[in-house]
Amino acid sequence: MSQKSITAVTWHESQWEWTVLAEQKGGWVVTGRGVETIQDSSQPEPFQKLVAQWHGQLWLTLPASQALLRAITLPTTDPAELGSMAELQLDKFSPFPAENTVMAVEVLERQEKTTRVLLAMAQREAITALAAPLLAAGLLPAGVGVDVLGWWQNLKAAGKLAGHGRELIILLTATGAVLLAFQDGQPLLLRTLGQSIVNHTELIEELDFALLSLEAEWGGAVHQVAIWRAPGSSAALIEAIQMHTEVRATVHDLGALPTLTEGLARRAAEATAPPANLVLPDWLKLERQRQLRRRLTVGGVIVGLCWVLGLAAVIGGSQWRKHITAQLQRELALLEPSAAEIRQQQTRIRLLQQYADPSGSALENLRDISAALPDGVKITSLTFVKGQTINLRGEADDAKNIYTFQQGLKGASRFKQVQLHSITPPAGKQTHTGFSVTLSLGEEAS
Fold first, then answer.
1. 109: which residues sit within 8 A by CB, 6+ positions away?
2. Which H/E stretch holds residue 446?
């Protein structure tokens, strides 16, 4: 399943070309490509249909005629120093004012104490004009590449570059001619030869000047020359180029290579180091702000959704509890008459058991009372409530005998509780001590 996508786009004279790459398990594969002519990109409907076919990061293609590319060696291997060192070299190479120049650095080769880099430079106005239709549609490119770098990527991927020696490659494309010089597969010079491939004289003069610059700066002899031509390139031009090179040039068709936009997309997708990117810093800042707003919006939506779901859960739970409570109350109302009748039956059964049990009869209780009755103590009154209590009144010759009687009653297992109270000492002609005792017969009567 695709995880990421990159779309490279180029447009020239109202003709738009694009390629979409998607990352899959086997690597980056082409999932979309096309060519379409839109005469007026300010018309929203056709342009929106075109944009709808693009996915992921968007890379625009700047013609080599509007950029300056130089391969230089910097005396450092620290990635943090490359940018500042490259800026110091900017005045030497760039014809543009520094405040109006966008620069990008791409690492080509790291050596023991130096780093070989590719400098890419362009004017801000050229990049803004290139992206104007996209900016008008609310799209911000993630990258801006140079078309010649896309062709370089295609040549490398197709194995069309020599691994050793000095090699010249002349590209004849619909947007102009470009000279690429390589030494052992690494670029020495990437230079436009003009925007027109019709004017042979002008193009040959630019080629002669470029070859002189190459020899003056790098020296050495050329071992191979290859001309890659687009459809429509004239045979006369190719013959004129061959006459101005020391080595007989071989001729190839650009149509045999992947499309320019596929090469640019693969540079962005498959590069081990960040490729040269001439995107405006303002766009990057604006894109970060957009992403922050999107994250905040998504976060707000998620929080709001969670709040709504939580509120719905609370309200739903409350309604569910009310429903369950009402249902249980209805069931309880239906069962209550039967339960009341069962409780009455249980009460009657207990009463019948109590009265039918001879062990709880008055005689049995009286027997235990008599067994505990010491000499000198006499029972004068006995009130018996079966299964509940026995109230005794009596008198004793000596108060000590009353306490002895109490201990005897406590020793009888029949009586759950023995309470001695209302001890009346002798008074007047009365010679006996009066007392009363309450005996509890059951747990529930305590």
1. 115, 116, 186
2. none
